[in-house]
């Protein structure tokens, strides 16, 4: 499929223009001169500006995969029931990293101090071989000619993967060596005239010669994505993880550690775009970070306040702790490997993983030596506490990274004005490493006025809803409504997004006459009420306004019940779950057993509502849950819209602020019964927090899942994805 760069609509591979917005899928406009440029070109033909999509390919030479019979995926990597190997939580990261620590090669001590390897390429070579020299060794470099033709036909996902060697689960990987081969990036290096591709499908064109590697060596080479709008083969595999062949292809140890780190710490680590194995090499495609702000330059910038410097030290100490179990601390000791995150300003970003030399593991003293050199080169005046900390690191007086973090907390507290301090030093959770520092003016001085805690900035708000009759019902008594309003304001160097959203699910009471009518009336009444009373506000409605809206919806249904002389179980009614979003603030309300779930990377899945049913009522009264749910009426609703007057109605209303990327899921009991959401969170909920994953497809998958495992009731779901980060 081709993903439109303008509206993200998914188009068939053969389409030339987006079916949704009409944007071209075969060319783009140069940002400098506005000329049409083919998507498979690196530079504009008219002005030379860079237009192509470039990835950095990390190539590891490893022992060839052994032929072996298919095996079951280990429980911690199972793709049928969860995606832990792709979307691993915090608890699983360190174990997974430990088991794969030898996948990424190590560097010698001499290489640690250099920003680029001393690889030299011979000037005279043809397209069949290149002679390179690393130290005193010579190696022949083969440049494949098998992709002489660029006009390859687009293939299906299965065909794209078919040529790749799939890794069996018992692949034996040799220990890493202490050398690394990198390609000469100087302008004097000869350019290959004939297009040479990294992959067998002719998608990723090499921008520099591909060198030959010895066992355990690693190289990095830039490639041009000739089909940048097409979903990568790896992403295509993730859409169908149940396929046995796909499950094997997803088990690529060289990529697994990147997945685990990215999905736990997205502001600090790159996301894998594609990965595969061929013969004796593992290839992982990572984002090109050349446009990210350079960490060393930011450190030396006199406009960077000392508070930000200390915040970076705190992040490095925390990342050291994260990378230690998997033996990737070397990644923090290469200054050319560090940048400032483009999505979370102020956060340190690691471009690539480098494994530790098993014969000389990095120590906190090495980290302190790096910090010492940074302070020395920048010419900054050191506080006494920082000088003492560096001395303690050099003399190995700090017992572990925890003691170092405590020292840094004390230093940061000393830099914070008294009116901004809390009673205790604020320690960032290991799952949320970003540290906010006070914003300074042009003079670099911190303002005298106390700062108010800042809400994060909204980056995007998306929502998608679906309803299905299910397998056993003849009519659909569920109803939903959603409305999202976005306003984007831009000035040079700044962009602000304002958003409001109203999201409703009503489940007509099964077995009650007119359940379908009741659910539709509730949705219609609430939409009309908020359109009238919450039309021009940028903030959330008050609790009383929300209660009034629900009461009015209840009265509308109740009046119909009374006019029809319905009584008892003959009265129509409906449940309700309601979500209102105003930028990064959320209000929720519910009546009955329709639920709201929240998923974040730091806290995982949480149920935000408590069902209004007899069993939960008894638990609230102190009854043991097992006893409460032995009652025959345990699942009978204690509240619903419509059957009774509003004076008997007690909706639950809550407010909270969104502080990180969040997925909200509204669902009727056709989806939530039998703990379906909790059971399949890793495979069907967690992936949806990623901005690159289609919400439409994700909600369709939830409906299909419910039909497969429940199906006895109507099924309705609304997924809301809120992307946010703190302002720098």
From TrEMBL:
Top-level taxon of the source organism: Bacteria
InterPro entries to which the protein is assigned, alphabetical: DZR, PP2C, PPM-type-like_dom_sf, PPM-type_phosphatase-like_dom
Residues annotated as transmembrane: none
A single MF term (Gene Ontology): protein serine/threonine phosphatase activity
Location of the PPM-type phosphatase domain: 463-722
Name of the protein described by the UniProt record: PP2C/PPM-type Ser/Thr protein phosphatase
Organism, scientific name: Limnospira indica PCC 8005
Taxon lineage: Bacteria, Bacillati, Cyanobacteriota, Cyanophyceae, Oscillatoriophycideae
């Amino acid at each position: 499929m081709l993903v439109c760069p303008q509206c993200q609509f998914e188009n068939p591979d053969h389409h030339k223009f987006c079916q949704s917005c009409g944007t071209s899928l075969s060319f783009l406009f140069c940002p400098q001169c506005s000329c049409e440029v083919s998507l498979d070109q690196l530079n504009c033909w008219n002005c030379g500006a860079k237009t192509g999509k470039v990835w950095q390919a990390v190539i590891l030479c490893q022992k060839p995969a052994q032929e072996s019979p298919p095996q079951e995926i280990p429980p911690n990597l199972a793709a049928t029931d969860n995606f832990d190997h792709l979307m691993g939580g915090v608890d699983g990261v360190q174990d997974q990293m430990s088991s794969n620590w030898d996948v990424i090669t190590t560097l010698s001590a001499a290489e640690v101090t250099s920003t680029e390897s001393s690889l030299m390429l011979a000037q005279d070579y043809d397209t069949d071989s290149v002679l390179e020299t690393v130290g005193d060794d010579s190696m022949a470099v083969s440049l494949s000619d098998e992709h002489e033709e660029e006009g390859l036909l687009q293939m299906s996902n299965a065909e794209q993967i078919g040529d790749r060697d799939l890794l069996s689960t018992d692949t034996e990987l040799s220990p890493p060596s202490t050398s690394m081969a990198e390609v000469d990036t100087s302008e004097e290096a000869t350019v290959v005239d004939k297009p040479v591709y990294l992959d067998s499908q002719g998608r990723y064109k090499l921008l520099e010669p591909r060198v030959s590697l010895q066992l355990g060596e690693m190289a990095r080479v830039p490639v041009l994505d000739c089909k940048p709008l097409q979903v990568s083969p790896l992403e295509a595999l993730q859409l169908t993880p149940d396929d046995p062949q796909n499950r094997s292809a997803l088990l690529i140890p060289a990529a697994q550690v990147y997945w685990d780190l990215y999905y736990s710490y997205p502001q600090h680590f790159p996301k894998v775009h594609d990965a595969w194995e061929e013969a004796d090499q593992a290839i992982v495609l990572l984002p090109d970070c050349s446009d990210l702000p350079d960490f060393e330059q930011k450190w030396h910038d006199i406009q960077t306040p000392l508070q930000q410097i200390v915040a970076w030290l705190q992040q490095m100490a925390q990342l050291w702790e994260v990378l230690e179990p998997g033996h990737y601390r070397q990644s923090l000791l290469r200054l050319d490997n560090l940048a400032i995150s483009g999505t979370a300003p102020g956060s340190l970003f690691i471009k690539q993983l480098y494994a530790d030399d098993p014969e000389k593991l990095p120590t906190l003293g090495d980290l302190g030596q790096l910090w010492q050199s940074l302070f020395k080169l920048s010419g900054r005046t050191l506080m006494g506490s920082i000088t003492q900390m560096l001395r303690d690191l050099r003399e190995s007086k700090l017992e572990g990274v925890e003691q170092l973090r405590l020292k840094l907390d004390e230093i940061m507290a000393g830099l914070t004005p008294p009116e901004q301090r809390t009673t205790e030093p604020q320690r960032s959770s290991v799952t949320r490493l970003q540290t906010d520092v006070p914003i300074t003016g042009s003079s670099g001085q911190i303002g005298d006025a106390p700062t108010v805690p800042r809400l994060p900035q909204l980056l995007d708000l998306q929502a998608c809803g679906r309803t299905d009759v299910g397998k056993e019902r003849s009519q659909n008594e569920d109803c939903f409504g959603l409305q999202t309003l976005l306003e984007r304001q831009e000035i040079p160097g700044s962009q602000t997004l304002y958003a409001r959203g109203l999201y409703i699910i009503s489940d007509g009471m099964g077995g009650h006459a007119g359940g379908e009518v009741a659910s539709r009336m509730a949705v219609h009444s609430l939409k009309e009420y908020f359109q009238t009373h919450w039309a021009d506000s940028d903030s959330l409605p008050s609790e009383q306004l929300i209660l009034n809206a629900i009461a009015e919806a209840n009265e509308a249904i109740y009046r119909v019940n009374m006019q029809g002389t319905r009584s008892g179980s003959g009265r129509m009614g409906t449940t309700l779950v309601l979500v209102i979003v105003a930028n990064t603030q959320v209000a929720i309300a519910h009546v009955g057993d329709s639920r709201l779930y929240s998923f974040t990377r730091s806290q995982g899945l949480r149920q935000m509502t408590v069902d209004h049913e007899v069993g939960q009522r008894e638990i609230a009264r102190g009854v043991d849950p097992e006893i409460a749910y032995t009652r025959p009426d345990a699942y009978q609703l204690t509240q619903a819209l419509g059957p009774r007057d509003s004076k008997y109605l007690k909706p639950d209303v809550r407010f909270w602020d969104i502080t990180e990327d969040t997925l909200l899921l509204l669902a009727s009991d056709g989806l939530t019964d039998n703990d379906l959401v909790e059971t399949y969170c890793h495979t069907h909920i967690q992936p949806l927090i990623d901005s690159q994953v289609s919400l439409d497809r994700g909600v369709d998958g939830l409906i299909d899942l419910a039909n497969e495992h429940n199906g006895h009731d109507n099924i309705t779901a609304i997924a809301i994805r809120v992307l946010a980060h703190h302002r720098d």
